[in-house]
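Worked example 2:
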Amino acid sequence: MALHHLPPDARPREKLLARGAGALSDAELLALLLRTGLAGKGVLALAQELLDHFGGLSGLLHARAEDLKRIKGLGGTAKRAEIIAVLELARRVLAEQLREREALDTPAALRHYLQLHLAARGHEVFAVLFLDIRHRLLALEELFHGTLAQTSVYPREVVLRALHHQAAAVVLAHNHPSGSVQPSRADEAITQTLKAALGLIDVRVLDHVIVAPGMAFSMAEEGLV
């Protein structure tokens, strides 16, 4: 069922224009992106099914393209492309905030940014945010990729990239595909190793953030950096 076949009081587009985006539910907003449902399933029902499957908007935004492709009704490219585009827009908005303001002044934006980049990966990814002297974002680089259990991190490579960006500080980050964001002993050890290596070139390690879908852990806030 297409949006224009819905009763007037149930049409998300008309509701949005008349009452504002805040008046729409998550399913209604998503229905605007999807536009059409499936045979026997209206677009609002399809939108709600997607939210239920991924555990809400946060889970949907962290979904990978291959995850979306498995959902009936998203096998084509158009709808998946639009959802992925929304995800990329969210990343870019958060990146702009971190480039304009101190990263540690906006801890929620920092965590959301890292979650959008790393949380849904099926393997461990170790990334570094390089910051200028005012702690604004210069670049985010994924430097090391590992298995579900571990990743190999080379301090020399992190130091070289910090010099390349002329960074004054860094935030370390990686994901836990297991879903837990509690740091392991290895996480704590590599944090201290990188802190010592980067200290030799006067680059501060401000934090090490561990992310999983819907969760994030700041080692700095727990006194582990």
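Residues 77-100 form the longest helix (24 residues). The chain has a mean pLDDT of 83.
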